[in-house]
Amino acid sequence: MFDVFTNIRLLDLLDISIVAFIIYRTILLIKGTRAVQMLLGLAVVLVFYLASRVGDLHTLNWFLSNFLSSIILVIVVIFQNDIRRALMHVGRNPFFGGMTYREESEVIDELVKACVALGNRKIGALIAIERETGIRDILESGVTVDARVCNELIRAIFMPSSPIHDGALVIQQGKLKFAGCFLPLSQSRDISKALGTRHRAAIGLTELADAIAIIVSEETGKISVAVNGGITRNLDATSLKKVLGRLLEPRRAKSKQKSGKKKG
Predict the structure, then answer these.
(1) Average of per-residue pLDDT across 136-153
(2) Parallel, antiparallel, or unpaired for β 175-181 and 230-235?
(3) CATH superfamily of 101-249
């Protein structure tokens, strides 16, 4: 045992550290997504394969060995959206790049005010918020806005009389960039039939990119937030502000938690 540790080189430690980091980042990436369930399914298949070898179940072993021989291809097909999102993380693009704490809070406040006002009047809206990875290649059409995040402007864009109300408003780097954009619809069968096109488009975007989508229902006026292919519904002003604060600036939220623990 001692000889094993004495023969380890610095290059071996570096190799192990890189692999451990990749595994750690992969776990963080798929945490809370449907990919976790798929990985559990693959783990069950692996257990059956090992059991078939131990128990001399030749037919089952032959079937599973052929399946596992193509495991790389299977993983690429099953996790194509997650792999795409992971590769896009290489070029990170923080949402609040170069903004002060006060400016960050104002952006979130303006978003919350606009969504609540639209919800109270039952005016449908779809707002896509870019986070660490770009979503421009996913968008279809759209009109350039390039303005600061403003409650009044957001409401004006989604007024039924507006020519660009029937599409998504895109926010990049804390600014309103594009309006009237069409997003890819999710093809998932797990989405409730009670959700309309806006909700399906919001989920579809977050399945493909590291983005947030805010939806205001035209039928009920309820506010929802989609992220990582999932959706949280029936948010009020307070809960929407908390969700956006946590998703848009996680580092700031963590620093607040640490400071709170120290005071306690």
Answers:
(1) 84
(2) unpaired
(3) DNA integrity scanning protein, DisA, N-terminal domain (3.40.1700.10)
